[in-house]
Amino acid sequence: MNIGNDASVRAATSAAQSSNAGEVQMAVLKKAMQSQAAGVQPLLDSLPQQPKLATEGAVGTKVNTYA
C-alpha cells in the first residue's frame, strides 16, 4: 500500500502546513504590534498634560472644554 499518493494524506499535510503558516503569520503580527506600541509610547508621554478642572469660582467648574 502506497500512502504517499493518498488524497487524505495530502489533505492532512496541506492542513498542517497552512496551520503552521497561520501561526507564523500571527507571531509576526504580534511582534509588529509590540514594536509599534513601544515606539508610540514615548510620543504619548511627550504630550502636555491637560489642565485640571477648576474647583471653585463661577467659570470652569461645570464644563471642561478646550479649543
Describe this structure as you would to a colleague.
The protein is mainly α. It has a domain at 1-42. It is 60% helix and 0% strand. It has one helix at 7-46. The longest helix is centred in the middle third of the chain and has 40 residues, at 7-46. The protein is rod-shaped.
Task: For this entry, give a set of tags.
single chain, 67 residues, mainly alpha
Q: What secondary-structure arrangement, pairings included, does this model have?
A:
Blueprint: H1 7-46
Distance between the termini: 79 Å
The number of helical segments is 1
The parts where pLDDT drops under 50 for at least 5 residues are: none
What is the string of SSEs from the N terminus onward?
Answer: H
The helix content, as a percent range, equals 55-70%
Beta-strand residue percentage: under 5%
Q: Determine the mean pLDDT.
A: 77
- Helix vs. strand class: mainly alpha
State the total count of DSSP E strands.
0
Biggest sheet details: none
Molecular shape: rod-shaped
Condensed summary:
By secondary structure, the chain is mostly helical. The chain contains 1 helix and no strands. The chain has a domain of 42 residues.
